[in-house]
Design goal:
The complex is a heterodimer of chains A (423) and B (287). In chain A, 79% of the residues lie in helices and 0% in strands. Chain A has 423 residues and is mainly alpha-helical. In chain B, the strands form 2 sheets. In chain B, strands 1, 3, 5, 6, 8, 9, 11 and 13 form an 8-stranded parallel beta sheet that branches. Classes of the chains: A mainly alpha (423), B alpha/beta (287).
Chain lengths: 423, 287
């Protein structure tokens, strides 16, 4: 790891860059996981009194709007060369975090559906802009060799804290706590962004070395390349499967006690620790193996996990579910989240990272997550049983598990046929 | 669930599938302390403490593969003990057969038991030498296999050994992942009953892979001895590794965990080198 070399050389500035990036991305992802993805449902259904179907429609709108803002921001950043200007990115990040702080504080005061919709749409602006700005900053802070491990630490930290706090997603209490945590971060960002600091100047030169990602050497990956588009489809599939199953599982009374919302602290601690360990394992795998292996593991783990849940529902729904079920779910989630943090910057250069991270995280992450969350809410309101719902999720996971090696095999066949002149 | 319970669980499910074809469901109790209420499905008890109180009826068969089971009430079919501790009190009624293959037990003379079969695989007051026999047998097999392997295909052992010593973190990561998913899949398949043969095959493959890992560690240890013959050095090394793992296991609190970690890393090294057929080279990343 490059990190150890930096520690032995006592290079404090790049080390500070590592720390800043890990803290900022972990905090941002924690905010996304808790306040937006789950707090939104609580706000819409309980506080505003909207139906699940109406909240799911609002979430779909949020996803689409966030994607649009992310892509526009990413393309503008690439075209204007903003990716190579760390100070500008810090200023953008300050503006984004400040607006999120304000939105967080006003959230519990929303009482009318029209205000809720307006709040959701305004939320999508900093969320969307934050994707290329935050993910794109990897080229300023993290060398290619360490990206897998850094992504693992970010994913592990965010999930670890999210699994332990809050135990109940009630937006009133949570918004106060989150705002209190965000305020010093906003102040620190403002200091870094607007004060002339040699620390920032030194970091801003690192993109020259760190810019070309792991899969962009020697040739950069273009946005229209098959590899990049296939990656978006695969990641979309993973996020879609996860959110589709997760929301129904955590709300099912039979799984409540062995899931993320368990009132038992020991269960939540087990889940939090598993998140952290699994993320570190994913970091090791990402750094040392080809990416297709990790995709296969993720699809395989999801397929197996949902198979266990459906098997349990079919054979013994009244029996206390074993912790091995959420454990596998957690491992799969930590794996793909680590992959998501590292894979987009590694398929980009300083000239394409805005668009690539916006498309990657926006389409695969946001759009997939929120569309499937909306679909899960809809299936619940339509009265689809948990077993039927999870059977569909499982079918999708198995399909992707089968499709990946098949696609790789067919691709190899086509390449061989081209070489032999058959095509 | 302790990995050592997996073979017994598969065996219990196999027996259940053969003897109680009408048992549509089985409940697995693997941890905690439980006092049961009336129960219709089959019951398999692992690392748990289970009491069947007076007045409670268990309609399905009971399999004890670990932990402790105290029967005060009624079991309408049979009870089979494969390991763990079984206490049958004087108020207990077992309509079918009580079979005990291994583990410790205390059966009250006044308990009502349809039929009783005791197969003494583990003697009640064990001779220390007899207790060591399975360990010595296993170590001997591994030493012989290691010696033959080192003589015939030393390159394979070198590949696994290099993966283990040069990439211990990767080996441990892959080993953990393979062990977790592999064991869960084996148990899960066993629950389908139809796939029990595949589960058994999986268990054998897992045992083979772990055995290869132990032999590799033996090879590495053997290289540090003064024995020149590669086969003999590996064989003796394997014996030393087995003894070392047993000794590590004696360390309180962390001993088992450390021994398990070493075996898991060895398993990972075996997996990433395709049982030593290929050298493991991690992908090269730019600086």
């Amino acid at each position: 790891m490059r990190l150890f070399e930096l520690i032995s050389r006592r290079s404090w500035v790049p080390l500070g860059g590592y720390l800043a990036y890990v803290l900022a991305l972990a905090a941002g992802y924690y905010y996304n996981l808790t306040f937006i993805q789950l707090g939104l449902i609580d706000l819409g259904t309980r506080l505003v009194g909207m139906s699940s179907a109406a909240v799911s429609a609002a979430m779909a709108a949020l996803a689409l709007s966030t994607l649009a803002v992310a892509v526009v921001t990413g393309v503008v950043m690439d075209r204007r060369g903003w990716n190579k200007n760390l100070r500008l990115k810090l200023r953008l990040l300050f503006a984004i975090t400040f607006s999120q702080l304000v939105l967080t504080l006003v959230a519990p005061r929303i009482e009318a559906p029209s205000l809720f919709i307006a709040w959701v749409m305004v939320c999508s602006i900093p969320l969307g802009a934050g994707i290329p700005v935050m993910f794109g900053s990897m080229i300023d802070f993290i060398p290619v060799r360490d990206r897998g491990f850094v992504a693992a630490v970010v994913a592990g930290l965010a999930f670890f804290v999210a699994a332990l706090y809050p135990a109940e997603w009630r937006i009133e209490e949570f918004s106060v706590v989150v705002a209190a945590a965000m305020a010093p971060a906003v102040a620190a960002l403002g200091f870094l962004a607007f004060k002339r600091l040699t620390f920032v100047d030194e970091l801003s030169r690192q993109h020259v070395e760190f810019g070309p990602g792991r899969f962009c050497r020697p040739h950069p990956v273009r946005t229209t390349d098959f590899t990049f588009l296939a990656l978006i489809v695969l990641m979309f599939g993973i996020f879609f499967i996860d959110s589709l199953g997760f929301l129904r599982i955590i709300e099912a009374p039979v799984y409540m006690y062995s899931s993320w919302q368990s009132p038992d602290m020991a269960v939540r601690l087990f889940i939090a620790t598993t998140h952290m360990v699994a993320a570190l394992m994913a970091g090791v795998l990402y750094t040392n193996f080809s990416r297709r292996w990790i995709f296969l593991w993720v699809f395989g783990l999801f397929a197996f996990t949902h198979l266990m849940y459906t098997f349990h529902l079919r054979t013994g729904p009244d029996v206390v579910p074993p912790l091995v079920m959420p454990m596998f779910y957690v491992v799969a989630v930590s794996f793909y989240t680590t992959l998501n943090f590292a894979v987009w910057p590694d398929h980009s250069t300083a000239d394409t990272i805005g668009t690539h991270t916006a498309l990657g995280v926006g389409v695969a992450g946001w759009l997939a997550s929120f569309l499937s969350t909306a679909l899960a809410l809809y299936s619940e309101s339509a009265g689809l049983s948990l077993l039927s719902h999870l059977t569909y999720v499982n079918a999708l996971a198995l399909l992707l598990l089968l499709a990946l090696p098949l696609a790789l095999y067919v691709r190899r066949m086509v390449a061989l046929a081209r070489v032999s002149g058959a095509v | 669930m302790s990995p050592s319970l997996v073979p017994l669980l598969v065996l219990a499910l196999l027996l259940m599938g053969v003897e109680h074809k009408d048992a549509a469901r089985a409940e697995l109790v693997m941890s905690g302390t439980h006092e049961l209420t009336d129960h219709e499905s089959a019951l398999i008890v692992g690392d748990a403490s289970v009491t069947i109180p007076v007045g409670v009826e268990i309609l399905g068969p009971v399999y004890v593969i670990g932990g402790d089971v105290r029967i005060q009430g009624s079991v309408r079919t049979s009870v089979m003990q494969l390991a763990g501790e079984l206490i049958v009190e004087e108020t207990a009624t077992i309509d079918g057969e009580l079979r005990s293959v291994a583990g410790s037990r205390a059966v009250s003379e006044n308990a009502t038991i349809g039929r009783r079969t005791m197969i003494e695989l583990t003697p009640t007051s064990p001779n220390p030498l007899l207790v060591l026999l399975p360990f010595a047998f296993m170590s001997g097999i591994l030493a012989l296999a290691g010696a033959a392997w080192a003589r015939r295909r030393p390159g394979m052992l070198i590949n696994v050994g290099r993966a283990l010593t040069q990439h211990p973190v990767i080996s441990l990561t892959v080993g953990t992942l393979v062990a977790l998913t592999g064991l869960s899949l084996i148990v899960f398949m066993a629950f389908t009953l139809v796939l029990i043969p595949i589960s058994i095959l999986g268990l054998l493959t897992a045992a083979l892979a772990v055995g290869c890992g132990v032999v590799t560690m033996g090879h590495l240890v053997g290289q540090h001895t003064r024995i020149r013959k590669a086969g003999l050095a590996t064989g003796i090394g394997a014996l030393l590794v087995m003894a070392g793992l047993e000794l590590i296991g004696l360390i309180p609190l962390i001993g088992d965990l450390v021994a398990m970690g070493i075996l898991t890393a060895a398993l990972g090294a075996v997996v990433i080198t395709y049982f030593g057929l290929s050298e493991f080279n991690p992908v090269k990343l730019p600086e």
